[in-house]
Amino acid sequence: MGDDNHDRAASRRDSNKSGPGIPAGLLVALIVAALALFGIGTRYHLSGDVNFVHCLFSVFFSLNLLICYWEACLFFRHDYIEARAGYWRSRHRETGRTPAVEFLATRVPLRRILSPRVWADAWATYSMFDASYTDRRTLGFTVDIGNGFVTPIPTLILYAAYTLGFLPAIAAGIIGAMLFWQWVYVSSLYWVSFFVAGRQAYITRGELYTYVIAPNAIWILIPLLGLYVSVRLILEGNYGILGF
After folding, report:
1. Three-state SS letters, the chain
2. Which terminus of the chain has a smaller tally of CB atoms within 10 A, N or C?
3. DSSP-assigned beta bridge partners for residue 107
4. What integer pLDDT is reported at residue 1 of this predicted model?
């Protein structure tokens, strides 16, 4: 209990002032870039070319892997997220600042870049726009922790297949069709649940488009392209759509 109180106090201090470390938003970008460049660089080293479709999915798969870690934090640190959500609400009332922006600007010490408590704050701030992430009984909470535990392995398999072509194209296409379809379906269903619950009434139109529509659109639009790529892999039996 003492450690929890200490961590919460430290996290609050980190949110209130700048200090040594990397801004959370920049850290996210660096992690995704590093993961994506690993695949892009590997392909270039092996085949000597760069393909736009492969680059796009390298970034998307890398982003999903990071989000999967966040979603594991959502599951294992849910009580902490509930407490932090209360803190961010109070801070928003006091300062008028947007918690999500403050979180992304918070400096994360290098020794804490893998701390679940750091990334749990991503959900605590997002709960300002969708309170379902502080309620275990909601669709939003369930589908996100499901994504966090179910999709890392198929994501890694597809990332490797798109980079190395180590699987038969038909097999990669079948795995991709299943994975991409569930992303399209679940993300669309999340939007439906959000509007059916009337949560848009509690946020501004700008917040709706910036924090709810735009981020979730990534998990609909790119998987739609992924479905097209998967169908091509199955029908053509080769990786021509990916440039090799």
Report:
1. CHHHHHHHHHHHHHHHCCCCCEEHHHHHHHHHHHHHHHHHHHHHHHHCCCCHHHHHHHHHHHHHHHHHHHHHHHHHCHHHHHHHHHHHHHHHHHHCCCHHHHHHHCEECHHHCCCHHHHHHHHHHHCCCCHHHHCCCCHHHHHHHHHHHHCHHHHHHHHHHHHHCCCCHHHHHHHHHHHHHHHHHHHHHHHHHHHHCCHHHHCCHHHHHHHHHHHHHHHHHHHHHHHHHHHHHHHHCCCHHHCC
2. N
3. 23
4. 46
Residue 108, strand partner residues: 22
What's the confidence (pLDDT) of residue 184? 97
pLDDT, position 17: 45
Q: Crossing angle of helices 52-76/152-164, nearest 10°?
A: 160
Nearest to 239 by CA among 154, 158, 153, 151: 158
* Measured distance between the N- and C-terminal CA atoms of the chain, rounded to whole angstroms: 55
pLDDT number for residue 18: 54
| In the chain, where the domains are located | 2-242
Q: Look-up: residue for tokens 């501004």?
A: 204
Tokens of 216: 């979730």
pTM assigned to the model? 0.90
CA 64 to chain centre: 5
Contact 127, 85 (CB under 8 A): yes
